[in-house]
Amino acid sequence: MSILLIASLLPVVLLMGYIYKRDTFQKEPWPLLMKAFGFGILSALLDIFVAGGLNYIIPKPENSLLGDALYNAFVSAALPEEFCKLLMLYLCIWKNPYFDEYYDGLEYAAFVGLGFAGFENILYIMQGGLGLALGRALFAVPAHFFFAIFMGYFLGLARFRYAQRRKYLALAYFVPVLLHGTYDGVLMYMNNLNGTDLPQDVDALSSALYVGFLVFFFFVWRAATRRVSKMSGK
């Protein structure tokens, strides 16, 4: 049990340390960062109800592998999850006097995103075992981190660029949703294809999707780390 817990939280702790160390201005107080992390856990719990309501309102397509993947990726995952994270981030930090630099939005968003990712990771790894831990450490946890970087980047712009506040608040939600939905959508579509008895040319499509996924993940990683460098000044 303890090994599974360590495997679940180690990538979260490493990314928390990375984003905290990159803060070259006034360091944020750890109690407030831990509050943001806790709000991230709360966002994962809130997501259960928000996703359930959204699934009830929006009907799921029938007899479509692609439609099923996109529905699960966006309606069941990206839209409610990023809404809950942004809501908790806003409640945690928007009116706090410590939110006084562009980088702060990015840093607090990362802690909220990692709170969500850590809670989710524990649930998955406790059920799937250590065999699942490496893949989630390399992809799932960093993905939540990268989505949060974009959310915090635009939230920081919204905080200090008053004339364009509505635009940046919208981008703080819809950019992570687009990235998150694309990430999940490709993986879910690949899983749907692999679970069917379709012709062998599906193997070529699955391989192409896998390569495309890796290229997409690299692009998101590069774009997110560049925003960290831009906001941190190094």
- The helix content is over 70%
Q: Can you summarize the main beta sheet?
A: none
State Rg: 18 Å
What fraction of the residues are assigned to beta strands by DSSP?
under 5%
Q: What is the CA-CA span between the terminal residues?
A: 39 Å
Which structural class do you get from the secondary structure elements? mainly alpha
Shape: globular
Q: Helix count?
A: 7
Provide mean pLDDT, rounded.
93
Instruction: Find the count of extended strands (DSSP E, 2+ residues).
Output: 0
Q: Order of SSEs, N→C? A: HHHHHHH
Low-confidence stretches: none
Summarize the structure.
This protein is mainly alpha-helical and 234 residues long. It is built from 7 helices and no strands. The chain is globular, with a radius of gyration of 18 Å.
Q: What does this 3D model show about the protein?
A:
This protein has seven helices and no strands. It has helices at residues 2-21, 30-57, 65-93, 102-128, 130-160, 165-194, 201-232. α1 packs parallel to α5, α2 runs antiparallel to α3 (65-93) and α3 runs antiparallel to α6.
SSE layout and pairing:
Blueprint: H1 2-21, H2 30-57, H3 65-93, H4 102-128, H5 130-160, H6 165-194, H7 201-232
